[in-house]
Amino acid sequence: QVQLVESGGGLVQAGGSIRLSCTMSGRTFDVHAMDWFRQAPGNEREFVARIWRSGDTTNVADFLEGRFTISKDLAKNTLYLQMSRLKPEDTAVYFCHTFQFGGAEAWGQGTQVTVSS
Questions:
Q1: What are the pLDDT digits (tens) for 14-34?
Q2: Cα(74)–Cα(30) distance, integer angstroms
Q3: What angle do CA 88, 92, 70 make, to 5 degrees?
Q4: How many of the other CB atoms lie within 10 Å of CB of 7?
């Protein structure tokens, strides 16, 4: 199994930046894709970004208009989400998610990001 722990959330002013981290442990060698999702109050969980274990290809949700960047440091077993030009509508709980070979998935507990106007 893979365990995920997010960190780095907090309160930030609109227009500011923040970087989230997701530390992975356990069978990390089984991970082949890593994602960020978010869920705002009253809304469904939505996809934010993905990066694959191999290579540097990323996929970021179009509605973010290039404001967020996903990256990884496999030596540290850590996934990052750099969030810039934040808007109040970015307020949500941000979750780390992984796909493992064989179809297993893992979710973190989430970290709250609140953007004040």
A1: 999 999 999 999 999 999 999
A2: 12
A3: 95
A4: 14
